[in-house]
Every structure is written in C-alpha cells, then in structure tokens.
Amino acid sequence: MTPDDRGFREPFHVGRPNLGDRERFLERVAAIFDRRWLTNNGPLVQEFEARLAEFLGVRHALAVCNGTIGLELAVRALGMQGEVIVPSFTFVATAHAVQWQGITPVFADVDPRTHNMDPGAVERAITPRTTGIIGVHLWGRPCPVDALASLARQHGLKLMFDAAHAFACSQGGRMVGNFGDCEVFSFHATKFFNTFEGGAITTNDDALAERLRLMRNFGFAGYDNVVHIGTNGKMTEVCAAMGLTNLESLDEFVAANRRNYEAYRDGLAGIGGLTLTEYDGAERCNFQYVAIEVDPARFGRSRDDLCQALHEHNILARRYFFPGSHNMEPYRTLYPGAGANLPNTEALCQRVLALPTGTAVSVDDIRRICVLIRAVT
Fold first, then answer.
1. Is residue 8 a contact partner of residue 313, using CB atoms and an 8 Å limit?
2. Are residues 27 and 133 in the same domain?
3. Which sign, positive or negative, has the C-alpha torsion 293, 299, 305, 310?
4. Is residue 3 domain-resident?
5. Rounded distance, CA 52 to CA 163, Å?
6. Is 50 exceeded by the pLDDT of residue 4?
7. Which domain range does residue 169 map to?
8. In the prediction, which pLDDT does 291 show?
9. Closest residue by Cα to residue 209 from 56, 324, 58, 21
10. Angle at Cα 247 formed by Cα 29 and Cα 30, nearest 5°?
C-alpha cells in the first residue's frame, strides 16, 4: 500500500486549528492598532467575556492567557491544599496545576465505559488531608457531576472541573461551565474553539469571581492598590479578537466535527475490536474528539501497531492519554505505587487512539482513513 492508493501526501494532525473569518479577524486587529490597547482588560476581552457568559448561561466568565494558568488560579482561589483528587487519564496539565503549587495530586481511577472519573474511586481516595476534587469532562462528555457534588458536600470539599474538552457541551440541558465551584476551559489552538492561546474560568459564585479577577492581575484593585496575592493570567486583545471571530463560526465548527464523527462511525462500523466513543444525542456536544478503543485480541493488532501504520501514511493519530499522568515525571517518582489503584486507567492508556477531525479534514479524507484502518486488520 502506497500514499498514492490509500495514504496521504500531506499530514493530517489531531487538533489542526479551526479558523474563523479572516477578514473579520483582521478588522478587529486593525481596531486594536488604532486604539493602541493591547492587553490589561481591553474592550475586546470585556466583550469576549460577556459573550462567553451569555452563551454558557453563567454569571461570570473570566478570560485567561491559557487553560493551565486558569486551573492554577482556580485551585489557589478555592484555597485547596494538602491533597486534591484528580484523574490520571487526562492531559498532564490537570495534575501539574496541583503539584506546581505544592499540593499532592491523588489519582483516582475512571469508569471504563465513560473514561470519566469513577465516583466510587474518588470516595475511596478521600483522606483527612483531602481538600478538593478536580473532575475532567473527557472527550466533551460531562463527568458524573451530581455524584461528585454529593461527595464534595458530604466531605466538605471544594469541587472544580477541567472543562478543556467540553466547551459548548451540556449535561441535563445545562451548559458545561455551570458545575461545581468553578470550571476551567482551554482555548488552545488544538481545541475545536481557540483563541490562539487562551482559556476561561466560569463560576456563579460572585465572591470567587472577584478573587479570581484580582489574582489574574497581580492582585491589583485599581491603580497602585494591590490587595491580594496574584500573578499575570490576563488574556491579550488579539487573542480575544480571535475568540470573538471564532465564536461567530462556532456552529460551523461543530457541524464539521459532527459530520466527521458520523463519517468515522459509518466507515468503521463492523470492524471487530474497535469501539468508537459515543455521545448522548439528547445533549449539546462539540464532537471535538473522535476517540477509538482498540482491543488487540479482537482487532488482531495492538493500538500502537495501528497508530504506527497510520503514521506511515501521514495520518498523525495520537495515543491518548499515554502513558497516563501517574506514569510521567515527577509523579512516577513521587508516587510509584499509584498505578496499583488505577487498573482502568492503565488499560485505557494502552487502547485509546484519537483520529484526525475538524474543518481541515473532509469526509472523503475520512473514508480513505477508514479504508486504511480496515487494511491494517
């Protein structure tokens, strides 16, 4: 098999950026130049925050320079310390945001069906030192928010969510962004909705929102008046311009993702040993990720074999979230026994593969990718 029959001459990446209307973006950039207001809570950031809050139905949406800083700010604003329970089956930034601040991340296992945190595993991980829980809405499928909220109330814990995968998704008809004490979004270039780099923290807690506003701007409350410890977590005007522009194309991005997801679903149907992530048709969903599980006993090849075969044809699929945060540094050295409590995570790290999608991928591309996957079996 050669690139001319089933492969691709140009690489197809997971997370290739979606781009809104170029002319509308450049109009906004020209206005930034005219105003000479580049950062420090400029008018485009303020407009972007208002548009986000309205879209998500939350009281407060605070734009930040990236999602990782958003996580760190939220953890600190909530007063977390000691131990915080997090999944290992997630991008490592979730754990880093805790460890970076001298807090111990305690890894809890996930439900093998949903890939989200298992409330039973979370409850078993609670100790007298636990102060919080960080859930992750993986693949845009929300966590068991009610069960986690019940645990948090029962044990007096703070609850926040890493919603990096879940912008424009809902749970029970309520938009992600409204759950827990706060939620943190990533608007990195690899996300289906991006601001070049950026993120946002959403909350319905007025006091928490005020702390976060102070903390993302060095603790300033007006000129020369620092009233709180803080850092620099501000979003720039040009990133807000990109965010506003991409918001105007949000429906287009979601439609492309859904079209692609359905093309993969049809193209991979009937292949033994491949399981495609499913979404709840009753909820809003961004279809940002096309994730498959590979069962080598039934598929006949391992996930890594399939990944390598795709890479040989310029289809740059990704192993998610290999090898698991608990197997990365510094966690594998600091907490060498963590994997013993994470059997589902360990299994998924060997089986999950994310396939290319987004506006840069066509249905015809996906058909050819599916033909190649069938040829690998």
1. yes
2. yes
3. negative
4. no
5. 14
6. no
7. 22-247
8. 97
9. 58
10. 10
How many Cβ atoms from other residues are within 10 Å of residue 365's Cβ?
17
The separation between the first and the last C-alpha atoms of the chain, rounded to the nearest angstrom, is: 14
What are the angstrom distances between the C-alpha of 18 and each of 6, 195, 298, 375? 25, 10, 35, 30
Residues 81, 202, single domain; the answer is yes
- For residues 136 and 116, give the distance between their C-alpha atoms in angstroms, rounded to a whole number: 7
Q: Using alpha carbons only, how large is the chain's radius of gyration in Å?
A: 21
Read off the pLDDT of residues 33-92 as tens digits, 9 standing for 90 and up: 999 999 999 999 999 999 999 999 999 999 999 999 999 999 999 999 999 999 999 999
Question: Are 156 and 288 members of one domain?
Answer: no
For residue 48, CA distances in Å to 43, 64, 244 come to 8, 11, 6
Report whether pLDDT(12) > 70.
no
Of 247, 270, 287, which one is at a domain's C-terminal end?
247
Q: What are phi and psi of 136, to 5 degrees?
A: -125, 125
274, amino acid identity: L
Tokens standing for 57?
Answer: 């139905």
Claim to verify: residue 80 and residue 175 sit in the same structural domain: yes
Give pLDDT, residue 11: 72
Query: Mind listing the pLDDT tens digit for each residue in 258-276?
Result: 999 999 999 999 999 999 9
Specify the pLDDT at position 16.
Answer: 83
Q: Is 231 within 8 Å of 333 (Cβ atoms)? A: no
Residues in the chain, total: 377
Phi then psi for residue 117, to 5 deg, are -55, 140
User: Residue 3's pLDDT is what?
Assistant: 39
CATH number of residue 158's parent domain: 3.40.640.10
Same domain, yes or no: 179 and 313: no
CB 163 within 8 A of CB 176: yes
DSSP secondary-structure letter at 16? P
Please name the amino acid found at residue 363. V
What φ, ψ does residue 293 adopt, rounded to 5°? Answer: -105, 135
Pair type for strands 60-64 and 170-171: unpaired
Q: Using the Cα atoms of residue 70, residue 73, residue 77 and residue 83 in order, give the sign of their dihedral.
A: positive
